[in-house]
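Reader question, answered in our methods column.
A reader sent in the components of a multi-part assembly and asked whether the whole thing could be modeled at once rather than chain by chain. We filled in our standard form and ran it. Here is what they sent:
COMPLEX SIZE: three components
ENTRIES:
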Amino acid sequence: MTELLSAAAVMIALLLGIGGMLAVLARRWRPDEDSIVERINAVLPQTQCGQCDYPGCRPYAEAIAAGEADINQCPPGGQDGVRRLAELLGREPKPLDPAFGETAPPQVAVIDEDRCIGCRLCIQACPVDAILGAPKRMHTVIEAECTGCELCLPPCPVDCIDLVPRPQPFVWPVHAPDDPIRAEAALR
Amino acid sequence: MRLSLAGPPHFPPINTVGGVMRQVLYALVPGILAHAWFFGPGIFIQIGLATGMALALEAAMLKARGRPLRPFLGDCSAVVTAVLFALSVPPLAPWWIALTGMIFAIVIAKHLYGGLGYNLFNPAMVGFAAVIIAFPFDLSQWLAPRQLSAGLPGVLESLQAVFTGRLPASMQWDAITQATPLDALKTGVAENRLVTEIREAPIFGDFGGLGWEWIANFYALGGLWLLYRRVISWHVPVAVIATVVAVSTPMWLAGPDINPSPAQHLFSGALILGAFFIATDPVSGCATMRGRLVFGAGVAVLTLAIRRFGAYPDGVAFAILLMNMAAPAIDRLTRPRTYGHAR
Amino acid sequence: MTDIEVGEHLYRFPGGLRLRHHKQVACRAPLERLPMPDALWIPLRQHQGPPGEPIVEAGETVLTGQPLTRAADDRQVPVHASTSGRIRGLVEGPAYWPPGTTAPCIVLEPDGHDRWIDAEDPPGRDEEADSLIRRLRAGGLAGLGGAMFPTAAKLRGDWPEIHTLILNGSECEPYISCDEMLMRERPGAILEGGRILARALGAREVVIGIEDQMGAVRRAFDAAAKEHDPDGICRVVQVTTIYPEGGEKQLIQVLTGREVPHDGLPQDLGLVCLNVATAAAARDIVVEDRPVVERIVTISGPGIAEPCNRIVRLGTPVRALIESAGGTSGDVDRVVVGGPMSGLPLASVDAPVVKGTNCILVLREQDVRRIQPVMPCINCGECVRVCPASLLPQQLFHALRSDRLEDAADLDLFDCIECGCCAHVCPSHIPLVDYYRSGKGLLRARGAEEARAARARARHEAREQREAQRAAERRRRREQRERGLDSPDGARDEVRAAVERARRTARNDPEDDS
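And here is the structure of the entire assembly that came back:
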């Protein structure tokens, strides 16, 4: 009987000791708010499109860090973005919430130069200063900087902005036509 | 002309999974024949039983998991598992030993972990560990080798013993079974007898166990052929054997009364079989060359420790299972230095 | 860097494979010139880097060796008219990379006379380094071994003193024998070209690495040395034939025992490695003022009726090469540019020969048939044993198959040289090289996306800051005004100023909205 009791006592002491140590360490090494926001922001695609209902990627990152927003509200980041956020925050990945929009392939805005009246409204709307142009002069989009956020579409009075797919680099495909491993993946 | 755009290399690979497994089976043939010579035809019954059950279970599991049968049955990996298991159990072990072992090996150790290539543990050794823990008595009923036996059971007697558990009236279990050399050592040392004294018993041969030493030699022969064919690399067998010698020699020199000689260690039990055929199992072992040396050395040390201090006379199976657990970590720690990178 | 000896001792690189080389089949036939085809398709871009700007018009007649594009810097390489004739136009033609795509080509209709353009500069092998490099660039020199790296960019740069030029004559891939043929036929040109390139580099020594089985090549070099290398700065070293010893990094390791740093270049070791064919072409540019308009191509493989080597004008369709080698025999499965271990599959035999086309390999269905489907990895470690870069190919595969790209990068995916050794020995028949190429592409694409996101973020933050500043400025001015209203004098001034503003507005043209 004493053996049983002493064994139980040792176990309880161990549990308490390890638990206490973990608690202390967790408090000691708790990451500070700012660095969490920075790290979340680094994962977000920086489209600045506002589809998540926040006025940009950083505000959304702040909301995630504060626990106000969920991790599945960013359509441009896609499912891969949700997965990376989940990994970063140690949560379970979840499907993208369709209420915030669907993931589209990367795109860029193109201004139809014949129709543009040079009203500057799109320049004011662009979150990343990717549109150039003077008043009453034709405007143009810097393709390398455009995030395809579509924020320039609503203000345009003459509907002269189109979004076209952004050319993607070639990635070598994996040729495995009769691959039982792939078959396995398809079954899941 | 429609041209294929498949990537390089453009010639098919030179090996196949089935080819590798079949060569392992060929390499086991001399050892199996030696086994049959010393212990009678029971080994063939065990191999047949285990192989049949392994293939049936493999097929059932592939079907249940929705995998194609042909490539995975044709790769012979289940047969290798079955044969290695059959070589580890007594030749007259009852049929349900093979069944239990194969359920643990194929269903649990292999398919529940994801099938070929995904098993963490060596399936044959999981099966063997399961039966030796569950049925220690049946697993200790080893036959006496040909030279000491009152008469080796023939094919019919063996069949009867395996399937009914009874011997023909002309034979007695006591007369044809005998403790293995490792069993004798273990019990002898436990009774505070000297190793030299224990070794005077007739079951011990020139350097290992009578009969066992020759079977081990034939296993080694098959292993050398596998080395020559580059089916296995030299790292694991050399590490196992060298470590056994390196660890047991000083112990033997320091205390020859309680410690058996290195040759005794090497040539009894499953050490040679394990070194060439079981610890070299690629899936559950290490892939880096230095990792294989560590893996083999670990198997050797653990085997010696279990033989010396453990409850079981031989420890190869448990040693390999324990090292299987460590294999991913060893691989990670022994990663080679990439070209152009500083260490 | 004087502590590096090149070729004094031979070292081993880890892994590698001994392959059957199948080279002699194409070396038996004599080296002949391929007949001029009806049209030459000359891609603008025949090197790694941006293409030059076209400087000819459709309908224009050109002479052999006349430049068709202009290069603006060392990373660009001009292309030249491979023969005299009329320019049909600039059109999209089949490209090697990415497979199945097109790229802009200048189509040239030969007039059959093959009149050379007059040499502008007199031959000048003793010029200074800068003018030599300028001539080599103008002559369209890019690595003829297959990678087509702009040679000028290799010769000129910000790195330590170059002491040795290595000329790579060890074609390690099976079937390819164009360099062996060149070394047998023109050893003098290679020696002279090596001396010119060494002069351009300031290198003291030229080491020509060939395979140990190329005895005839060694004798050819020895015979040519007296005339073409009088002071003996060139040295021929025979290395053991183990694939891929002809890879630049492996050859350097074999000759020096040193490794090219993973984030560096051979130049960091004081070495430059060029192909022997590049050296011969450099000699033709400098001594004869003949730009790169042709090269030797091996046409071989089990699917070719009469394997051979041919001297081919750049822009000739691959189809013409196959026809000149007696056509195909059997059921053709694929046509590969390069060797069987790392060559690139062609989508169309209409693709033209470019500067890096060393071999056209035709494989039949039975040569590529696999007797087993792709199986799970059994961790056999064969790939680890043969990897010349000492990677863990099976762990790279596991990381890439489960989309753990970061893990693959940590396992040094980018140090993979795609030699194909791992896939060649894999008993599970996993297309490992496909996985590595795909993983590198995905990682590069992700890197580009991340750079884009970082820029977007910086621009967005700059904009936010600017707007915040503007808002702060407005607030400051309003506050100033409000403070001004507190004092009676200030208030009076404010009122007066407001009245004045209103008057001025009323006087002005009401249509002016500014």
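What stands out: Chain B has a mean pLDDT of 91. Residues 50 and 98 of chain B are 5 Å apart (CA to CA).
Send us your own complexes using the same form.
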